[in-house]
Amino acid sequence: MTAMGAQRIDDDRALRTTAKVLPEHARGHNRSLVLQTLYRSGSQSRADLARETGLTRVTISDLISELMGESLVIELGQREESRPGKPATLVDIDRSAFQIVSLDLSGHALLRGAVLSLDGDVLDSAELELVGARGEEAFDKVAELLSRVIAQTTAPILGVGIGSPGIVDRAGVVRNAPNLGWRDLPLQQRLQDATGLAVLVCNDANAAALAEHSFGGADHDLLLVKVDHGVGAGLLIGGRAVFGEGFAAGEIGHVVVGTDAGPLCACGKNGCLEAWLSAPSLTAAIAAATADAATPAAAEQATHHILAEAGRRLGIVLAPVVGALNLWEIVLSGPTHLLDGPLSLATVETLRKRTMADITGDLTLRMTTQGQDIVLRGAAAMVLSGRLGVS
Hints:
The protein is of the alpha/beta class. It has 13 helices and 16 strands. The strands form four sheets. It has a five-stranded mixed β-sheet with strand order 6-5-4-7-11, sandwiched between helices. A five-stranded mixed β-sheet has the order 14-13-12-15-16, with helices on both faces.
């Protein structure tokens, strides 16, 4: 596996390889181009690949031989053809040759792990209760879960992808994750040293955005808002993940919304978006309001008001981003019973009120189709991009 580069998904390159480049950069690029074509299009003949990629048949033949030697590509046999002549031999990525291990560290009470196929399908999974662990104790929990999931694999491991809450830099160092009590934790390097595997770590919301890109059919600019214990966003522009100079792009949870004080946030400020919108905040606010309601109808009305107000606050935060970047799609990821309804409707209504109609007339806001596995699948997409150059 030494020929496979351990590229990061955050190295300012497009996630998908789509065209030829100059000769001095060609080998790695053309290799990714062939793998990407097979990954998305399925089995092809060598002649098909030459036509689709624009590479010569000699280059294709050399690359296929190299990739077959690494067990990444296999021959599937001859294509059934009615025309005269020798039928073409089909090749494809060997989708059963390797598996990917993913961890989702974003949950408040549970850490989740899974074994995934190269197509992003969850083959096996495991969970570990966090039980309030922080700092080194939380790291030990992560290492334990990773060991469990590695033991569940049934094929060589292509790599390990991890979605972590907080600010994560290019080297997989968790600069700050308050919910886990981590500051400047070299998570990627420590787990790589412990396992001997290629490990890639990124922010959980960024991982979720990658899942939408790779497995959710989002081939355009995208803003994904992830709501769980905290609130964060992942952003894809021009096929590239946006990380920011300080690796904190998308950290919208602690933006103060409005000038009316608002609820107290865990960070010490009043009125942060997270204090309005996080799943624990919404759940607690609804529980308090419904407990005081005199009738079921009053409880329902109170719940509607709390969710709509949270959606309005989210719209206020997102409007400048949507206007500045001319975004047409926003995806919400989190508890469906909280996000899908009054909250999302109020978000769209607020966005349209606060932006130019000509710019946001085609704006859509939808729930993710990836479900609770979105970070796990996004972490797998990070491994595919980093190790093979495909997504």
